[in-house]
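User: Earlier you gave me the apo prediction for this protein. Now I'd like the version with zinc ion bound, so I can compare the two side by side. Same sequence as before, with the ligand SMILES added.
Assistant: Got it. Here's the input I'm using:
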Amino acid sequence: MPHWTATCHCRQLRLSITGAPRHVHACTCTRCQNVTGGPASWNGWFDRADVAIHGTYSTYAYDRAGSGGSFSTFCPTCGSGGFGVTQEFLPDCYVIPMGSLASPEGPPPPAPAMVHFWQNRPGWLESLGDLPGGNGGWPDR
Ligand SMILES: [Zn+2]
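And here is the structure of the complex with zinc ion:
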């Protein structure tokens, strides 16, 4: 059985996940760029019974589908991490940003099975792997 621990930046908010996601996708729409601050979102939908929540979180409720009940959560200390619920797709699941599962020790988070709004991606996204890189310095995990 897969097992991941999703964490926020400061690690105060942790999600212990003990099941495979029902769906994983990436999205490069401009709203997802606004939410993540990056070129794409990468989210997984997990059965709620497979997710144990440890720590405190703040909630941002929104009403994109007109039915209410959608929300995102985030760590009140560092503002990252968390989980959410989308009423328009698999509302019985928690949506978790897959980057919060990344760890040098754990299994890699599952890759997306599809991408939405690829036409809205930043023009440089596809050439990212061709840029010079460095592995020293700040990242400690
Ligand atoms: Zn935090």
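For your comparison, keep in mind: The chain has one helix and ten strands.
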